[in-house]
Amino acid sequence: MPVHVARPSIPCDKPLPLANVLEVQRLLFLLEAPEYCMRAFREHGVNGQDLVVLEEEDLDDSRFKFPRHVQRKVMRIPRAWRTYVSITGSSTNPVVSVDQYVQYYSKDRPAAVQTQLRAAFRMVDTNNNGLLTFEEFLVGFSLLEAALAEQQALPHAQRSQPQAEGELQPAEAEESQGGKAGGKGEGGGWFGW
């Protein structure tokens, strides 16, 4: 019989090192970690300070023997925290502004990307106040990470697929359609990179 897991309702709206066990549970829930993972973290009292210093080798402990895909979900939290601190410049700043977000992610990218980054920011800013708490940033970080991974995999997948005789190459198909193929922005990825 499947177990129904109630959604943890305590928001984590403070810096990760100050998060208590229940707030860590909410972060894991937002990343869709399975119940057995959440239970292990709850039973062993894993709090925000523990997550800040978490390394992949720590998940080799017998108390935390999770499948690889679950380990990747858990490791997103400290990676997102390190990025969050890089953006804000401080581990005590509880929010990221839209300007900080755009400036951080638009480094060495075309100017057109800024518009797409602002749209991505608005998508994860659930309360529409122009600021992201760590919880909102974590969800957005996961989406951005997935989009970047998809974009990096896309060119590789296109190169490795054999073309049937007479089939147009992607550049030829684009030219024959009179424009850009895909419709996802300049570079073909979600953010045009």
Automatic annotation (TrEMBL):
<feature type="domain" description="EF-hand">
    <location>
        <begin position="112"/>
        <end position="147"/>
    </location>
</feature>
<feature type="compositionally biased region" description="Gly residues">
    <location>
        <begin position="179"/>
        <end position="193"/>
    </location>
</feature>
<dbReference type="InterPro" id="IPR011992">
    <property type="entry name" value="EF-hand-dom_pair"/>
</dbReference>
<protein>
    <recommendedName>
        <fullName>EF-hand domain-containing protein</fullName>
    </recommendedName>
</protein>
<dbReference type="GO" id="GO:0005509">
    <property type="term" value="F:calcium ion binding"/>
</dbReference>
<dbReference type="Pfam" id="PF00036">
    <property type="entry name" value="EF-hand_1"/>
</dbReference>
<keyword id="KW-0106">Calcium</keyword>
<dbReference type="InterPro" id="IPR002048">
    <property type="entry name" value="EF_hand_dom"/>
</dbReference>
<feature type="region of interest" description="Disordered">
    <location>
        <begin position="154"/>
        <end position="193"/>
    </location>
</feature>
<dbReference type="InterPro" id="IPR018247">
    <property type="entry name" value="EF_Hand_1_Ca_BS"/>
</dbReference>
